[in-house]
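Just wondering, can you check both lines?
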Amino acid sequence: MDRLIYVSEQHRSKILDVKTHLRLNLNESEYPLRFKQRNDTEFCYRLFSHEDQLKIDTNYYIGVDWVINDKVSIYIEPKLNDGKEVNFLSMLIKSLEAPENFEHLDDLFDIDYEGKWIPIPQNKDLLSPILIVQFLKLVQHIVKKGLKKSYYTVSDNLNSKIKGKVLVGRQIKENVVKNRLTKTVCQFQEFGYNFEENQFLKTVIGFVKSYIYQSRTYFSDDQKANLIEILNFCEPAFRSIDEVKNKHLDVRVKRNVFYQDYYEAIRIGKLILKRFSYNITKASEKPTSTPPFWLDMSKLFELYVFGKLKKIFPEPNAVTYHDHFKGGKETDILIRKENYQAVVDCKYKPQYKDNDPSLEDKRQLAGYTRLKSVYNKLNKEPNEVIKGLIIYSNQSSNTTFVKDDLFTKNIDEYVDFYKLGIGLPEIL
């Protein structure tokens, strides 16, 4: 554990002290670049030598990974440039209050379960809380909508009747040999809640409950109370459902337009079971290791902003996230509410508090506001100008949006271009 480098996710270089540099004893050829698995243009961190110093550049990611396998690991925690620590779990909880965000969790984080796990202190476990928050919010939404029903196979020793097919071997062993002449062991189909998908969800709920109640976690008291409230809401719906007997059961679920949340909940549930090695006793143990993983804070910021905008524009399709257009173009957020139509670009860049957005970011936003397909989506005429809004992280700003404040701070030299800061929750 003494080979774990701690760095803040603060978007600037950090020079390692001489003691750390000497202890690591790294050759320049061992300085790697770490990239997101899905994107070879953005690094999670960069370790390099400069003027006889060892430096680390961090980007918009938090997580844990190996710098050199089995020798040196790195732990990047969430921070802003002013030194305040962002409460990313509160951001995630707030984001998932908007059910539309459940469809956009795939690219939020990457976990390398095949890689060697990294020893960490108990209070530095980031991965378990991330998975648990997502899972519980998904299950909460499933319960609110109502659990899915399906056909499933049942075996029972029926009295004075036959249903389905008779299991001859068990019938002889359990009834004929024991002279139970009115009993018949049958196998038949039933339609109800007690099928494998619901059983799997109940099994994972058991792991989650054990983790929240029995272990010292990364959650604050308020977060823990909120999650326990969700647990208490969800558990009664699964009371008549069995748990999965084989923890390695490969539950396969197809996407269903009426039950879309099941697919994502089971995906996250499988990650939780892997996290605890399919052993529920490990959910209450002090976490001492974690698989390498990265969480994209800029993506989380987008989800957070979208959830906040949905609060002030709750009407269906008044705010939409990641609309796709020809040529692979994709907007962050569109505000489609009449009199407020705009293209919104989310930038997890606190430096925009005192500076105009970069030319690259302004050009990107300008390009989206001139797309014919965007005009069609917003019901705008070609002679009208579509507003562009860059929303950035700013701890001096309000933590909520007000409609009338969206377009009050102009970006110089651009017509109908604006910027707006939003404060993020902090760890007190």
About this structure: The chain has a mean pLDDT of 85. DSSP finds ten helices and 19 strands in the chain. The first strand starts at residue 4 and ends at 9. Residues 142 and 261 are 6 Å apart (CA to CA).
